[in-house]
Amino acid sequence: MKQFFKFMFASILGTFLSIMFAGVLLFVIFFAMLGGVISEASENGPGKMEKVEDNSILHLTLNKPILDRTSENPFENFDFGAMKSQNGLGLDKIVKSIEKAKTDDRIKGIYLDLTSIPAGMATLEELRAAIIDFKKSKKWVISYSEIYTQGSYYIASAADKIYVNPAGIVEHRGLASELMFFKNALEKLEVEMQIIRHGKFKSAVEPFMLEKMSDANREQMQLILNTAWESMTKQVSKSRGISVNKLNELADNMTIQDAKIAKAEGLVDELYYKDEILTEIKKRLAIENDEEISSISLGMYSTTLNKDKKIKNAKNAKNKIAVVYASGEINSGKSNGNIMGSETISKAIREARLDSNIKAIVLRVNSPGGSALASDVMWREVVLAKKAKPVIVSMGNVAASGGYYIACAADKIVADEKTITGSIGVFGVVPNAQGLMNNKLGITFDRVETNKHAGMMTIFKPLTAEEKDIIQIGVEKIYDDFITKVAAGRGMTKDEVDAIGQGRVWMGKDALKIGLVDEIGGMNRAIEIAQEYAELEDFEIVNYPKLKDPFEELLEELSINIESRVLNKALGNEQKYYKKIQSVTKQSGIMARMAFDIDIH
Fold it and tell me: How many whole angstroms separate alpha carbon 67 and alpha carbon 348?
């Protein structure tokens, strides 16, 4: 009887604690959602509106990371300490909102309230194109900032007028890319990265082998930066009426030292304080100085949009175009955070293929690559889908190596001018930590084996020459398979693909010239092509993969959030270097991945 009461009270206590935990969890969820609403409302701009009124402006800040697809999870990247969401709208919702505002009679203009824009080069290209398209409505666009980074200035240059704080800064110095090399650090730790690769340009392994860029890598990096800068300066030149030569001269001489010089050289129109900007907006809205500006944030405005449609008369359309978002580093298994899982993406493509209402598929690729095996798994699904319906690829900031692998079988490939693509090459990495364990830590290993190469993939002994040859054969086979599939998908010979392959990276503009992509454009252009191929008039857009239930992800997000907050507090913006080290140390096996990331700051 004593044991009975013991277990009964333990059961009651467990139930009570479970109820308490559920209550606390619901309490956290409630205030998280409330915090998200408050956060969004606080960023509404001058008038802090929550609905669209007549004679309004659309207020764009663009100061949060811009992914391809807007997350529907209110807890993703939520800062529970500050009770504030770190999520911004995805490129899909931003562009759609600007398109809607173009024809919305209540919206009279766009106010770009800019600082730094955390986005890649191709994303900036699509944002700028959306603003230029908005101006076709004859509505106005003005921009203001205290500090224009090169990325935010590139967006601002599309505006009718650019204003900067009198004590502000306009950055204009050209582009640079800095790579991190681990060779010396690994030597000090007595860790050897045993590398087997194919492709003289396959520079993903160089950080383990060298102290600086190889000549081949430097050549491709210089071409990428030159192409991007040339494109940017041409666009700014067209918008601002400043010659490309003059823009380069200003950058070379670091002429733009303060706001006054920026105005004198024509990069900005006026030096205004915030109150003067508000007065300017009131003039444009034809309201009195004592009246309040009707302003709505991009986030709030996006919630007023109807169900995602591309064509006005698509309310009851049975015809659909599926947009499959394939973003992140490629691994096997399910997608998670910034990882693209082959199982998740393959399932999404398969569902779109088997749905008879879906008449075409747009595969949005934004990936530097990763596992060669996982890439091949997704490539197979693209091939099967292509037999059933049109498949169009839209490339984002980067669609390289494994990212190009999964794209090459499509009917047509559309890339932005500044998309980084190609990198057709593979490599294998097997760490050897014997020196670290034996000499630094005093740990030794012994083993027994049934066969000669049973322990081949251990990280605690070096590969033999024979074992390196075995892996090299595997790398060569995968590379040959890679270029064979690219050749088949692109209507080229293997030799032609090999000549532009070898791991070399290209920008979209150059990739078009050599046949790796078919057309320059963004997501909207890819959808237009899919519509043309499927011969559709009215259609609805549906997005894949299906988003997870937010509540199922809550506990996972809580743990991720703690790590993110610790890293952010300790390292700030430099946490990207920690993540890079973390990423490269996890690489193993045969990979199809690009070496570097390029951002405009």
Answer: 19
Contact 189, 437 (CB under 8 A): no
User: Does any domain span residue 242?
Assistant: no
Q: Are residues 17 and 101 in the same domain?
A: no
- Residue 20 has a pLDDT of 53
C-alpha closest to that of 86 among 113, 59, 63: 63
One domain, residues 153 and 4: no
What is the pLDDT, as a whole number, of residue 39?
46
Q: Which residues contact 47 (CB under 8 A, 6 or more apart)?
A: 56, 292, 293, 294, 295, 296
Strand 391-400 with 358-367, pairing: parallel
Give me the number of domains the chain comprises: 3
Q: What is the structure's pLDDT at 555?
A: 54
Q: Strand, coil or helix: what is 277?
A: helix
Rounded Cα distance between 281 and 236, Å, is: 24
Phi, psi (5° rounding) for residue 316?
-115, 25
In this structure, the answer to whether residues 284 and 354 fall within a common structural domain is: no
Task: For 181-218, give the DSSP string.
Answer: --HHHHHHHT-EEEEEEE-TT-GGGHHHH-SS--HHHH
Give the closest residue to 370 by CA, choosing from 178, 586, 191, 582. Answer: 586
401: annotated active-site residue: yes
CA distances from 590 to 229, 421, 428, 477 (A): 34, 19, 4, 11
202 catalytic? Reply is yes
Residue-number span of the structural domain to which 325 is assigned: 320-593
* Residue 346 shares a structural domain with residue 449: yes
pLDDT at 336: 87
Ranges under pLDDT 70 in the chain = 1-50, 72-87, 199-202, 306-317, 548-589, 594-601
Taking the model in full, what pTM does it have? 0.83
240 assigned to some structural domain: no
Q: What are the tens digits of pLDDT across the range 180-211?
A: 999 999 999 999 998 888 766 667 788 888 99
Query: What one-character-per-residue DSSP string does 285-328 give?
Result: HT--TTSPPEEEEHHHHHHTS-SSBSSTT-TT---EEEEEEEES
Residue 86 in any domain: the answer is yes
Q: Do 280 and 326 have their domain in common?
A: no
Predicted pLDDT of residue 312: 42
Q: 479-504: buried (b, 16+ CB within 10 Å) or exposed (e) per residue?
A: beebbebbbebbebeeebbbebbbbb
How many CB atoms neighbour CB 396 within 10 A? 28
Is 199 part of any domain? Answer: no
CATH code: domain of residue 464: 3.90.226.10
- The first and second tokens of residue 147, run together, are 């500090």
Are 327 and 545 in contact by the 8 Å Cβ rule? The answer is no
pLDDT of residue 429: 84
Per-residue pLDDT at 567: 52
| Phi and psi, residue 209, nearest 5° | -105, -30
| Same domain membership, residue 531 and residue 409 | yes
Choosing from 202, 359, 418, 485, the catalytic residue is: 202
Indicate if 16 and 115 belong to the same structural domain: no
Q: Are 284 and 418 contained in the same domain? A: no
Q: Which of 85, 231, 401, 423 is catalytic?
A: 401
Give me Rg for the CA atoms of the chain. 27
Q: Following DSSP, what letter does each residue of 341-383 receive, concatenated?
A: EHHHHHHHHHHHHH-TTEEEEEEEEEE-EEEHHHHHHHHHHHH
